[in-house]
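Per reviewer request, we include the raw input and output of the structure prediction for the construct analysed in the revised manuscript.
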Amino acid sequence: MLLPFSRHWITQYLASVIGFMGAVVAVNQNFMGWAKISKGEFAFNEQLYVDPFLLSGAALLIIIGQLWLILTKAPTSAA
């Protein structure tokens, strides 16, 4: 996102592919937590900051946010 060629279509394509693969992993991890909730077996980890359910939710938000930043078009000048 900081590099000058981050707006090139190849860079955006690679970022999209890798980002959506990461989002799939995060969603699968999060749904495994929801499956445990449905079975009645869910319990938060004693150390809340290493709980897989919360970490996967946070990772999903961060990945989607980064993809949104990469894929939004740069503002055009009014001149």
